Amino acid sequence: MVEIWTNQILQGVLLGGLYALFAIGLSLSVGVMRFVNIAHGDLIVMISFVLLSLTGGLGLPTLAAVAIVIPISFVGGYLLQRLLLQRVLGKDVLSIILVTFGLSIVIQNALQGVYGADIRKVGGGAIETATIPLSGNINVGVLPLVIFISATLLIWLLDLLLYRSRIGARIRAVSDSVATADLVGLRSARIYAIAMAIVGATMAISAGFMAIWTNFDPTSGPSRLLIAFEAVVLGGLGNLWGTLIGGIIIGVAQAVGAQFDAAWQVLAGHIVFLAIFLTRPQGLFPKY
Amino acid sequence: MTASPLLSIENLSVYHGQFRALTNVSITLGAGEVVSIIGANGAGKSSLLKTIVGQVDRTEGAIRFEGADLRGTHTADIVRSGVALVPEGRRLFPSLTVEENLEIGWEVGRRGDIGFDDVYRFFPVLKEKRRQLSRELSGGQQQMVAVGRALLANPKLMLCDEISLGLAPTIIKDLYQIIPTVRDRGISILVVEQDISRSLAVADRFYCLLEGRVNLSGRPADVTHDTVVKHYFGL
Fold it and tell me: What is the residue-level pLDDT of chain A in tens, covering all 288 positions?
């Protein structure tokens, strides 16, 4: 019995790594750039479909396809910010929500038009089924472990970038006050675009892992956004490590819920989120 | 004053929506000069500085810095050309350390003689607190960071907007003591203040603003205190 629960919790922790990967980009846009990108999940799903085309259509190896979409997403994030999001940022809270909501709908419909409504998945090769036996009935999947380690590494790298680099200091300065940044001569629009480019690169990484580990279809975005949003809020705004912990909490809650009844898996995550949110609305480790 | 001024403002009018904050203001400032802009609250002093650094869209007239019209120029380019602002209310980045705040000034400005060692020599306390978040500093120390940030941009012209506001007299004295030192490094200074005595004591020339118009200008030694006070309050 103990072994079963240990296994479920372990699988939940690893699932939390994937959720944290979904949420890292959102954590940057909500916590640092101070806006909610409703299209966050849809952008990840869109990149997953691009990966599907590169692997299925062109026959590229998955790793090579991910290596191609990371720089493309970086540039895409930059352009998205400069050409669309920057135009409404700072006007009022509703404008950016409406624009990204509209973007979400456009992406979903475009994906349905191009790829149809079928559920898809990208082949990951032998890594998908490889496991490491720990003891008895406890096994750790290599892919979930790689995802968890990648999430941790990515957060560490982003933390270094934000708190130990010049561009990180500039991003935090603009996050503190766009008006002051402009007043002293920082180019806030360009800095925001660079931050969004970084968000784009993190989306590509999470899309790569999501496309291999889970199924997706053109309407999967909002459910990914919801999980990501919960992880960000649970962890506390602006705290990337908090986002990882938020993801783990939701992952463990889902795994434990599923142990009682498979139908409870998703609901258990939301219930735990609500319970923590009610007692600590500022999140567990808020930076601001 | 030199024949060709470093800063020349000609018939400048500035609008905030329907409200006209400045009307036909003309001001010159030569290289190496310290010029004070005095005026009561709402006289248009801060609007003038914000307009110089390109933060106000609706303007008429001309603002020339080294002969080039600054109107329509991005603030970042104005700073890069040699104009740095010490904004009213310090306006530091609270989640950045003292050193990171200073680095912002260094990065946005032009390369020049003034480095971090100079700033730490002007304000030794900042060296001790360089790893602390700026929001943890006292008001006076925060003002030192704001001045240091502007100096590290290596400006030819430094704009100081009410640097004494809300500070203890001893701190104000310390801040004003560096103005002659800064001028000796070849930096011209435009000081905006409500405090008449403090402002005129460091200035070569001054302009008094009343309701957005210049109503008195000259050298502090050439006018009596009473004359300045009368124009300051529009009596």
Answer: 788 889 999 999 999 999 999 999 999 998 888 889 999 999 999 999 999 999 998 999 999 999 999 999 999 999 999 999 999 987 788 999 999 999 999 999 999 999 999 999 998 888 888 999 888 788 899 999 999 999 999 999 999 999 999 999 999 999 999 999 999 999 999 999 999 999 999 999 999 999 999 999 999 999 999 999 999 999 998 899 999 999 999 999 999 999 999 899 999 999 999 999 999 999 999 876
Task: Report the residue from B53, B80, B95 with minimal CB separation from A183.
Answer: B53
Nearest chain B residue to A182, by CA:
B75
Options 3.40.50.300, 3.40.30.10, 3.30.160.20, 3.10.129.10; which CATH number does B7-89+153-233 get?
Answer: 3.40.50.300
- Rounded Cα distance, B59 and A180, in Å: 21
Query: Would you say domain A2-116+132-279 falls under CATH 1.10.150?
Result: no
Distance of alpha carbon A206 from alpha carbon A213, whole angstroms: 10
- The complex scores an ipTM of 0.89
CA angle A181, A182, A186 (to 5 degrees): 65
A32: tokens are: 């640092």
From the candidates B83, B90, B104, B145, which should be mutated to test the interface with A, based on the most A CB atoms within 10 A? B104
Contact between A187 and B55 using a beta-carbon 8 Å cutoff: no
